[in-house]
């Protein structure tokens, strides 16, 4: 089976979507299928990689979003897809690429849309007060135009369940060998914190929708309570300079590392922190948080996001912008270190990439076996997601 995947908003150097695409593609290849990924870039390219063939088509920057490019030339993309003759089409962008569902139907190709983002959440942050109605209309069109919708958490599936649209629930995974408590490094800790300091970690993109200021507020709250805490921020983004200025003005001990190119350095940092903070309110899965758990470090997450579902008992959810995170961090620190690290690792072990690959392949096979007109699909289904995987 030739699975052609098309994605926009793929970060040029790292990011959850990039990680997911790489691991799923490698899994498809290992299972004996042919994986082809089509993404935007600065210039055209075509190469063979561990995740299969990767085709890059020229796509323009989106201003203000930190380097993301999009595929806007529909004719060129459609011609590329026709030349590839896919058996299945997997689409990872519910906005600018939704038209591919209609294209696939006209060409009798089963299609699957992967919901990597929450329209509810995005419209809540940036859109009008009527965002929920807008999301319902757009999600209804997405469900009608594709043979399958895959969501990675129940939280992400809710906006489809609300309109009675069927989804497959397939969690993403984590590399349990790369991210391990064994990468804990005393030298890494000593680089950023004194022996008696609490080492906090914010690992993620510094952009408005990720709410990185919540991590600074948590650090400030802890220090006001007399906790010797320092914060390390691994990640780049449009808010970096503003955050640096704010941390300096408040005299907060924050170390901004920018984008780390060495994946093992990232893994060692995640394994060496005491607590990580993942404050984004619209995360539909949270790969970075899961990688941190696999490294043996508990995580405090936003109660508004899907992450409480992913971290389970290995972390805590906080509401609001600051005090809730302080309380949650103190709660985690009060637990015996060995117990909290073992709990983090145990939760992450529920999410191997092998299970994700199997779930995605099952959804692909089903999209070809039970194709029905979309209107009938929406009428006969209650919107309850079919679970293909383990969410713990």
TrEMBL record:
Span list, region Disordered: 371-392
Organism, as annotated: Paractinoplanes toevensis
One Pfam match: Glycos_transf_1
Domain Glycosyl transferase family: 194-347
Record field: compositional bias (Basic and acidic residues): 371-383
Record SUPFAM superfamilies: UDP-Glycosyltransferase/glycogen phosphorylase (SSF53756)
MF-aspect GO terms: glycosyltransferase activity
Record protein name field: GDP-mannose-dependent alpha-(1-6)-phosphatidylinositol dimannoside mannosyltransferase
Glycosyltransferase found in the keyword field: yes
Position of the signal peptide: none
Gene3D superfamilies on file: Glycogen Phosphorylase B (3.40.50.2000)
GO biological process, one term: carbohydrate derivative biosynthetic process
Domain Glycosyltransferase subfamily 4-like N-terminal positions: 15-172
